[in-house]
Amino acid sequence: MTALSNGTFLVVGKTGTFPAFTLTAWIYNADGSLKARQDLDVPKHEVPGVYGDLELPAIDPMAVELPDGRIAITWTVNTPSSGNTYVAPWMSIYTADLRPIGTTKPVFDPISGARDYAESIIALDDGTLVISARNEKDGHAYLRMFSPNETRSAAIDLGSASSSAPGTVLTDVTALSNGNVAVVVREGTSSLKGYVLTPSEASGSAPMSFEISTTSSPIKEGVKITALKDGGFVVTWMEQGSAGTPDFNTFFRVYGSEGSAVSAIKPVSSLSYPELLSAGHSDVLSLPSGGFAVAYEKATGYDASGELGYEIHLALFDKNGTRQSDDVRVSHAATGSIDLHELHLMGDGRILVRHSQGMQIVDPRDKAISLKGTAQNDHYIGTAFNDTFESSAGADRLEGAGGNDTYKVDNAGDRVIEKANEGVDTIETSVSYALSAHVEHLIATGSASIALTGNALANTITGNAGDNTLDGGAGADMLDGGDGFDFASFASSSYGVTASLSGGDGDSFIAIEGIIGSGFADTLIGNGTAELRGAGGNDTYRVRAGDAVVEAVGQGRDTVLVSTSYALQVAAEIEVLKLTGISARSSASLTGSGTANEIVGHAGRTTIKAGSGNDKIYGGLGNDSLWGQSGRDIFVFDTRPNKSTNVDRVYDFKSKDDSIWLDNKVFTKLGSGTASKPKKFKSDMFVEGKRAQDAEDRIVYDRKTGAVYYDQDGTGAKAQVKIASISNKTKLYYHDFLVI
């Protein structure tokens, strides 16, 4: 088993039944749940006695992560007893997702009669692999290195290594922060020795050893070593109290980087017989705080069947070997005994304990952590304090556990998991990102133009120097766009909203230059410099000159209300442009877009240029100036005519394209017709000339002057009234006029 830098952990074992064995890997998430199970592809190798199959006889697989995320796996091949038999370790490299790279390589040559067992493996910062092994044939321990390009070095003889029990682990190795390697060896039943060596200078013989324990204890077992954060290391071992007694305790000693002792030999626990019954097991690991943790077994007595029971305890020490707290009981066997196997430090600083009944995670952290992720898909779990997580490529899963946590993410697939009432948390992001539940703040970093989306809480969302889009989601949010041209968005809203650049729908805005509406009927209010974007629904815009309104095709029937002169953008899919709230004594101009618009003037003088598209133009009261421009345009007269104050001038009427609609609520003698079903004039209702010719005439057109008159009776009993002037004096026909 090994903990991976991305916060997950890897277990390697052999599965299946004879002869269909395979090496299998299990990857677990940071919360202990199974992430993936994968049978490993072990490259074949022509080895005498096993026919190239290195899985069938595999025992004791071990794994280590290389600095670049690759995985090195070593295992010992124990061949069948017949034929050319040997015991020798092999090594294979895999990608982070456990695909094999290159060929499988022997750690020691598989020659007949060999008895070499791999016992520990580490990876140095430069990618060098260091493997310790014992040779049961010559009784020596060895160290083997593979360079970053997998070139095998000469074996380093560490001298005698003997055991009172065949199969007992006799060696352990650790990488020091200065690039050196420290290794410990059980030299004899009661003697331990250690070495510090420089990998680049290592040769076939070991350097001078350093002292570990000189006590006269008859048996020393379970030697372990781990590097400390300050550059030194700590060694632990099991030691029998006296010959013939069943009490074993765990001891440790702290060393400097060169191998000199900086602490006395100390017992890990103050237990005595019968709680120190039998040898048991122990392990040690370095902690991010600079100290270390030691796990040991405590005997609980014999059960009814006579089986000795154990429980696992964990002791924490600082870098000098001073105990930091009361020991923690990690696990108690539900039934029978529980045996300690190994400890590993997880990527987020928690401790992973593997024992005979499974795996457990222990959290020794007593202050906030600051973690920077890997290029892989990381999974880290925080503390109850104010933690900082920094993503570093990959789609990461980051879990807070209380405190005011800060998450720095760089991938939209990064998942932040918080629970209710676990502090006020902040996500800093350099990419478009949406808050997950129970996170309060979202801040854009860098200068890219990104989208920021809140959740159901009252969020504070802050943009960067780019052009950001901020959507608070539900809740009364504070949106601060920062520099750049930023939008407040209501795209996530489930109903229509009313919003201006100062806020809307309970949200407050700072440094917001534009608004994006919901998919429903919104009212968006400009300030003279805003950009307002609808997003579906029949929207209403209340704007000033200088505001830009953006609508796309198929996004509802939208209305722009203005109190001053205004021009739609050419591409704006706005259906209605209307002057409102402006004095009749003021004049204004309206300009349509390149699509079909209804443009409505006010009670004063209005100049309307409809633009391209099939437009409908309402001059309203006042002496208006009207241009249909391109398209099939309709000029609507629906206000009471007045020869002095309400005569509109049409500048570009084209009979083949355009038409004039007259409202029968005002022009009461024209007969029936509605806006939905306009009714064409009869031919005798129109006459060209200066005045009506008979009682059927209702519209008189003086082409010489361009004047258009309405005559109620066609007899002269009631005076005709000038209603419009056709500036281009084009030819008009009766079918140019319709009644609504």
List the helices and strands and how they pair.
Blueprint: E1 2-3, E2 9-15, E3 22-28, E4 34-39, E5 58-65, E6 71-78, E7 87-94, E8 100-106, E9 116-123, E10 129-135, E11 140-146, E12 156-160, E13 171-175, E14 181-188, E15 191-197, E16 209-211, E17 220-227, E18 233-240, E19 248-255, E20 266-267, E21 282-286, E22 292-302, E23 308-317, E24 328-332, E25 340-345, E26 351-355, E27 358-362, E28 370-372, E29 379-381, E30 388-390, E31 397-399, E32 406-409, E33 415-417, E34 426-429, E35 433-434, E36 441-444, E37 451-453, E38 460-462, E39 469-471, E40 478-480, E41 487-489, E42 498-500, E43 503-504, E44 507-510, E45 514-516, E46 523-525, E47 531-533, E48 540-543, E49 548-550, E50 559-562, E51 566-567, E52 576-579, E53 588-591, E54 598-600, E55 606-609, E56 616-618, E57 625-627, E58 634-637, E59 648-650, E60 659-662, E61 679-680, E62 686-688, E63 699-702, E64 707-710, E65 721-726, E66 737-739
Parallel strand pairs: 28-30, 29-31, 30-32, 31-33, 32-34, 34-36, 35-37, 36-38, 37-39, 38-40, 39-41, 40-44, 41-45, 42-46, 45-47, 46-48, 47-49, 48-50, 50-52, 51-53, 52-54, 53-55, 54-56, 55-57, 56-58, 57-59, 58-60, 59-65, 60-66, 62-63
Antiparallel strand pairs: 1-2, 2-3, 3-4, 5-6, 6-7, 7-8, 9-10, 10-11, 11-12, 13-14, 14-15, 15-16, 17-18, 18-19, 19-20, 21-22, 22-23, 23-24, 25-26, 26-27, 42-43, 43-44, 61-66, 63-64, 64-65
